[in-house]
């Protein structure tokens, strides 16, 4: 009987007990800076930290004794073959997060002292605009509207519900007399036309246009990321890319060539875009757009 077969015959409880018996305990604060940021002086640690971060994101809010799947693949190779399992996280009674593979039981890690890390909270906390009359804005939706480059569509924030809505320019042009397209009778086209009418009739500022991120703003985020790197080849390459004829494209090409640098950039970009979206919402409040 192979080890894989023996593992498949174990109950879930037996798998957890066996995994715990071979677990390696890690403390993310051994790697992080005091403020919870990544150790810029040791980029070789970033992939390991990000792996632990994803596990914390999956398990920080679990009730004790429950488990949740992740998108992390098991890195082990039982019998020299890649394991197809996706790692799971469970929160133990002692509050440690146990990461295990339900397929082979390998790559088990116990994470302790995770409660104060930046990932022990929702990835995107809904930001209330006016608690007495509005819903909440999903920052992920707002960021997507600001960064997704879709031609002939316009995005708006509904101040009454806090939702991000999009409408094709074609529907807006129909209100000006342009003939409808072949799809005008479809259910989606009818809904878009109804939203266009609401936008046209809006006299209270309910629908607030969401401007896409400009090239200059994208450049500024990239420039700040490069400036925060320690002196070395990676920073020099990014500085050169930002001085190229097509700086945005050259920057992304340079980052994509290094998986570790790319992982750090994506995490930085996500934080920067969320900060930008929150700042935009604050400006909206200051302009009394929701009165």
Query: What is the domain total for the residues?
Result: 3
Q: Report the structural category.
A: alpha+beta
Overall pLDDT metric: 78
> What profile does the largest beta sheet have?
5 strands, mixed
Q: Count the strands?
A: 10
Supply Rg. Answer: 24 Å
Helix content, binned percent: 40-55%
Q: What percentage of amino acids are in beta strands?
A: 5-15%
Please write the string of helix (H) and strand (E) elements: HHEHEEEEEEHEEHHEHHHH
Helix count from the secondary structure assignment: 10
Instruction: Please identify the oligomeric state.
Output: single chain
The 3D shape can be described as globular
End-to-end distance: 71 Å
Low confidence ranges: 16-22, 124-135
